[in-house]
Amino acid sequence: MKTMTCKQLGGACDLEFRADSFDDMAALSKQHGMEMFQKGDEAHLNAMNEMQALMQSPDAMVEWFENKRKEFDALPSQ
């Protein structure tokens, strides 16, 4: 089990997610993002806008995603 924060995953807060795989971690982050979107949380909406801008370049998005995966892989298991 590894831990990453919303901020580490491109979000806006220090909420911690715990998962055994990066894919599970990304799913938890996505779920949290959807909840914050529905609440209209301004900080998270700004972070989402930044991610959408990044998504305009498929190469940049792949690079970002792979860097986050490497960051996850380097974390110690708890």
Write a short abstract of this structure.
By secondary structure, the protein is mainly alpha-helical. Helix content is 63%, strand content 10%.
In words, what does this structure look like?
The structure is a single chain. The longest helix has 18 residues, at 22-39. The protein has 78 residues and is mainly α. It has a two-stranded antiparallel ribbon. The protein is globular, with a radius of gyration of 12 Å. The chain has helices at 22-39, 42-55, 58-74; strands at residues 2-5, 16-19. The protein has one domain.
SSE diagram, text form:
Elements: E1 2-5, E2 16-19, H1 22-39, H2 42-55, H3 58-74
Antiparallel strand pairs: 1-2
Outline type: globular
Care to count the β-strands? 2
Which structural category fits the helices and strands? mainly alpha
Tell me the fraction of residues in β-strands, as a range.
5-15%
The count of helical stretches stands at 3
| Main β-sheet description | 2 strands, antiparallel
Q: What is the straight-line distance between the termini?
A: 5 Å
The parts where pLDDT drops under 50 for at least 5 residues are none
- Chain-averaged pLDDT: 95
Amount of helix: 55-70%
* Rg from Cα: 12 Å
As laid out across the biggest beta sheet, the strand order is 1-2
Order of helices and strands: EEHHH
How many domain units?
1
Features of the shown structure:
78 residues; mainly alpha
